[in-house]
User: What shape does this take?
Amino acid sequence: MLENFRWQDLLDIFIVAFILYRVLLLMVDTRAMQLVKGILVIGATAAASKFFDLKALSWLLERALGAIFIAIPIVFQPELRRMLEELGRGRIWKRRQAIEHAEQMADDVTRAISYLQGQSLGAILVFQRETGLADVWRSAVRLNAEITQELIVSIFWPNNPLHDGAAIIDRSVIVAAACYLPLTSNTDLSRWYGTRHRAALGVTEVSDAIALVVSEERGEVALATNGHLSKGLKEDQVHRLVYHYFMAKEGPKGLWDQLREEIKSMWREEGRDGV
Assistant: This one.
């Protein structure tokens, strides 16, 4: 059998595997990915039922898979259209657009924070990671808006109805604003830290989110993560942090390790310790 195996067959397998891998990446964090998981579960159950000769269950699952494949183009038309658009733009083959997009969003967030810092305006930006924060923003004001410098500044502008609370960012959108976060349970925290810092610490204690806090009183930027607080962040540190966050969200899960290393390096700079 191996004597009939050609080098073209190896190339053919590699190309098909690569295309499937890139298509699956496009479906990450979409409804289509949940569908793929469901189909895999049904397929595995159908294979097991055939192996054990469970005729009634095999018949039922075969009909269910057939109905699912017929319904896929109808139910998931928006996701399929988006995937075809991505393919047409060539983004399935390269990550340059993702890098540029992450860089643009990092610039917007950094400029917004610098402006708020210069104006001594308080703000909390929470960056959702793998732990969902639906319980936090469910009772807040839903935005699902594109990340821009102007929007972030306007959210935290005085007398704006949304300025009292936190804004939550997930992937490339601001999910919600005016979010009330759980306060930290750390009783050893200095009394000089106000409600914003305590809220930022609180949300990182109950999730793997990271939070950036702009102090209204001291005009400094602080980072909260894993129940620790690092203060006095510089502009380039903020930019590196949010850039790594957006790249981790745009790319494979392994990029979360780069984000964690970036946070650790920020703690080490200038001897800064977590609270």
